Amino acid sequence: MPGRLHVRFAEHKNEYFFPKDYKRKRATSLPPPPPPAQDYLQVPSKHASHASFDGAFRAPAHVPSSHGTHSPASRIGSHLLPSHGTHSPHGSHSSSSPNGAHSSHTSSSSQGTPLSASRTQALPPPSPAQAPSHIPSSTSSYPPTPTRALRPRRYSDSSRYGPAYAHIHPLLARDKQLPPLRFDLRRRPRHITDAHRHHLPSKLLAEPATNPPVAALTVASSRLPWAFRIEGATRSERYDAAYVSVRDVLDGLYAAMRAPVGEREYKAYADRRGVRHAFAERCRVSSRPAEEKAQGLRRVDLLTTRIWFAGLERGDGGVWNLRLAESEVAK
């Protein structure tokens, strides 16, 4: 830490410097003057077992905090604690003790047990200009609302959370035993059926892909070097903006897998033989094989034999991991 700040008064200039580095700096204004001597006599000792530096005051015994012996709030006077309004996170609330008894705490008790009256009265009350700048005046008790979450017109507690807290729709969730969807990524989403080979109703496909709904989803796969983003295109009277529906996810996955693959990307892929075999098989099962062959490789060919949708799982940073399977039953 730098040494004590020394101030020199000259006739035509004011300078200050740190003794350790001896680096002079010109001051545009003098530092504030020290407080009067009577204020020093009222400052308690830093250690409860020692007298103050002038020997005229001995601090009272330390009062333990309700939040523990190491709580910083137990060493702060009650006058330093901010006065919050009704929306303060430290406002009046009711809490439970370890023994099950309920007690009411004010904003000062929520920070820790106040000091004794003799110590708090010895300190002069701070002026508004000296109020700590790091203590908020009034904040909301709710967490900040992420920008990507959609708020329904009818208030719901789950609507204030973003993709990191969202839950995937059961049709899109991963099931190792029996996936809820039969989705071959080589074919259009209109051919998708449920596990019992029944076509999905439009009302079910229009449901939000996550709860709460989000405006976009980022999907990644360990078998592909890309991560793609699916934008919401479904609107409903319940929500203020477009959201990602089950249909949007299925259409987005198919569109992402239909993207062409260049020669450079193909050469960078390790299993080239498997990619060529997947390309030939896709052209064979297509209703227009000549057209598919002329259009060349697509991203779905890089999946080789894992071309069945097996569900989405939550990843890091709000990314959803795409799980794939070699057959209709996920492995």
TrEMBL record:
Extent of Low complexity compositional bias: 82-118, 130-142
DUF6699 domain mapped to chain residues: 181-317
| Record protein name field | DUF6699 domain-containing protein
Q: Region Disordered: what ranges? A: 18-161
What's one Pfam family the UniProt record gives for this protein? DUF6699
Instruction: Name the InterPro entries on file.
Output: DUF6699
